[in-house]
């Protein structure tokens, strides 16, 4: 072991007979450990939050969708699907059909009538239903095709609570036929003609799903089998195609490739474009991170600088003795740099262990809960990423060594006569 490191270790971790510099060192180690753990936990929570919400959005829909202007319906063709599936990075593709409807349950409302709630009825293929079911909780059995009888539908937990229904209950699906909502609201047609244009279908609640995405998702979207919806409402027609890709980093390029391949009037939209408001919200959460990181880092840096200055005062006589014995100022500076490195190393290791322990504890017991309606999740999500631990540890060590240079030069500038007479 080099003499500088040996002396630095004794200065940092061995108490003198009359003074206790190890107490100051312990306080510095604890400060670095707490700062390191706070940085890592901040990155883990923000990363976990973004990962969970992004995963929920992608599972709820798809990586990209292909539609026509104004969401108008168009005939489903095998040629379009094969062309879509043949594009680079596309791993799966399927058609879907969407309808704005009203759902009416038998639960008694305020005036003795059934409860009515608006909904988006979404017809999907069994393959898409299986993918969605793996990413949601609740009773989500395979969608069944029903050529006759009630239409099996899956409703979100929030929507089911609004309607007051459970699995197995019957509801009425009210859809507008050839007339748009404007004609219905403006009353430009006789009441009898308007009523005759309504598509009334009985449906059965086949299951209740829960994604945690309450507003705009679980509270409004109901799923049904695509072919069953087509047979009842729009034979052979679809709202668009949805596809998943193998690498989300290639999503913009894949979307542009799909739009060019299908041509006008098709347009391709990625999941980040369709839910831009939510992803901007997630980006806003990440934008706060630099401020937190800078604040915690500054505290850690001042902590180590003040600790070294106190240690220099404590070891003034020892520094004078080393200088009198012929130790050059550069080596004295290296001695205190080594001391700072050892203190930071112990603090960083303790901070890493503290962050890992708290992360595993929270993931196991979920002690911190969140309002799901506001955050789309029930508990704080923590993503344990080894890269976050490595980057934070390296950054803290580098900053400590950088700012430890100032007190180390102070120690090196002490004159032997002045130091020994202190």
Q: What features would you highlight for this structure?
A:
422 residues; alpha+beta; six-stranded mixed beta barrel; 19 helices
Architecture overview:
This protein is an alpha+beta fold. The protein is 56% helix and 19% strand. It has helices at 3-13, 21-60, 78-85, 126-134, 157-163, 181-186, 191-197, 214-218, 226-232, 251-262, 271-274, 276-287, 289-314, 316-324, 329-365, 372-375, 386-403, 405-412, 416-420; strands at 64-67, 74-75, 90-108, 114-124, 137-139, 151-156, 170-176, 198-210, 221-225, 237-238, 240-245, 267-270. Strands 3-4-9-6-8-7 form a six-stranded mixed beta barrel, surrounded by five helices. α1 (3-13) crosses α15, α13 (289-314) packs across α17 (386-403) and α15 packs antiparallel against α18. The longest helix has 40 residues, at 21-60. Mean pLDDT is 80; it is low at 178-187.
Low-confidence stretches: 178-187
Summarize the main sheet.
Answer: 6 strands, mixed, barrel
Class derived from helix and strand content: alpha+beta
Quickly count the helices.
19
Shape: elongated
Strand content: 15-25%
Distance from first to last alpha carbon: 30 Å
CA-based gyration radius: 33 Å
Helix coverage percent: 55-70%
How many strands in all? Answer: 12
Determine the oligomeric state from the structure. single chain
Strand order of the largest sheet: 3-4-9-6-8-7
Number of domains in the coordinates? 2
Mean pLDDT: 80
């Amino acid at each position: 072991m080099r003499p500088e490191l040996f002396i630095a270790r004794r200065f940092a971790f061995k108490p003198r007979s009359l003074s206790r510099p190890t107490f100051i060192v312990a306080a510095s180690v604890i400060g670095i450990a707490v700062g390191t753990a706070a940085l890592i936990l901040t990155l883990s929570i923000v990363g976990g939050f973004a990962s969970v919400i992004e995963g929920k959005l992608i599972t709820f829909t798809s990586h990209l969708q292909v539609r026509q202007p104004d969401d108008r319906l168009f005939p489903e063709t095998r040629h379009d699907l094969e062309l879509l599936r043949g594009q680079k990075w596309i791993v799966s593709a399927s058609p879907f059909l969407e309808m704005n409807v009203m759902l009416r349950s038998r639960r008694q409302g305020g005036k003795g009538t059934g409860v009515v709630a608006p909904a988006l009825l979404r017809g999907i293929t069994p393959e898409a239903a299986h993918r969605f079911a793996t990413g949601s909780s609740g009773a989500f059995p395979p969608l069944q095709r029903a050529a006759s009888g009630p239409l099996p539908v899956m409703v979100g937990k929030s929507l089911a609570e609004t309607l007051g229904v459970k699995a197995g209950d019957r509801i009425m699906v009210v859809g507008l036929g050839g007339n748009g909502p404007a004609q219905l609201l403006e009353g430009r047609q006789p009441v009898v003609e308007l009523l005759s244009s309504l598509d009334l279908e009985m449906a059965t609640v086949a299951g209740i799903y829960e994604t945690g995405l309450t507003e705009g998702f679980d509270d409004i979207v109901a799923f049904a089998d695509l072919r069953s919806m087509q047979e009842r409402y729009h034979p052979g027609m679809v709202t668009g195609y949805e596809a998943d890709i193998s690498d989300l980093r290639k999503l913009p390029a894949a979307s542009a490739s799909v739009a060019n391949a299908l041509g006008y009037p098709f347009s391709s939209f990625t999941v980040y474009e369709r839910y831009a408001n939510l992803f901007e919200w997630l980006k806003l959460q990440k934008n706060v991170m630099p401020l937190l990181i800078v604040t915690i880092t500054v505290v850690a840096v001042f902590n180590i600088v003040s600790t070294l200055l106190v240690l220099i005062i404590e070891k003034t006589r020892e520094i004078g003795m080393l200088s009198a014995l012929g130790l050059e100022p550069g080596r004295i500076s290296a001695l205190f740099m080594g001391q700072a490195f050892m203190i930071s190393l112990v603090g960083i290791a303790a901070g890493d262990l503290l962050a890992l322990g708290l992360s595993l504890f929270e993931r196991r017991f979920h002690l911190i809960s969140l309002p799901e309606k506001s955050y789309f999740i029930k508990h704080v999500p923590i993503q344990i990423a080894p890269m976050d631990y490595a980057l934070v540890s390296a950054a803290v060590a580098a900053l400590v060594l950088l700012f430890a240079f100032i007190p180390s030069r102070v120690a090196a500038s002490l004159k032997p006569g002045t130091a020994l007479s202190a």
